[in-house]
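Revision sheet: structure tokens.
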Amino acid sequence: MEKYQEIERSIIKKFRKEIWRQFVKAVKDYELIKENDKIMVCISGGKDSFLLAKCIQELQRHGKIHFDAHYVVMNPGYNKINEEMILKNAELLNIPIEVFKSDIFEVVDNIAKESPCYMCARMRRGYLYNRAKELGCNKIALGHHFDDVIETTLLSMFYGSEIKTMMPKLHSDNFEGLELIRPMYLIKEQDILSWKKHNELTFIACACKFTEKMKIDDGASKRNEMKKLISDLRKVNKNVDHNIFKSLDNINMNCILGYHKDGIRHSFLDEYDK
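Predicted:
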């Protein structure tokens, strides 16, 4: 058995409960993949996106839905070591990647020295949407996981003064007909790390040139702050992350002060005396 086959087997056998079932559940519950979809699977080079690609491959082989997938790596200016590691892992995992280059790192370094992560993410998204349109894809798959959802929710509350979360799918505002999906939405980061360790895999942690300079962006440091907070809370309540997640699907509209939808602000006073 080839190494990539052992890795594939681990997803649907050893990590069936933690990874495969959660992947399939998200796809079904949130209706992420439909018949004849053409999906561009985005691979950054890290553990999350490579696992996403393998799960998509497995779904193509064993699922009942027919869809096409393109596995795309955008090189925003990686150094040679990171670039070679991505290519090596793609070969090891038997993922037929397509690589296209951009000058995002160089541009961001010139215009957003103080807060590069936000600008880099925005520019990456634009390049990826454009490439998806060129490939004739109607969906873009990203490797965000359960922990990303929880951290984003807390960041919005603590630093954005609003309750909102990272959605499992959303329509593009600027590219008609394109949809972004997150099939790893229910998979915990710790289970991804366990899968990686079990298969003795090594991925790039962060290929960003700004990280290499040891300049920590404020957004990145705040996300790490949320990781630590959740870890500390879990020592008191092991289900705290699940409870946060469940609360986002269990909002009691009779007990909130206000909300806004489609740009319109609503207050509890609007219907208080009705």
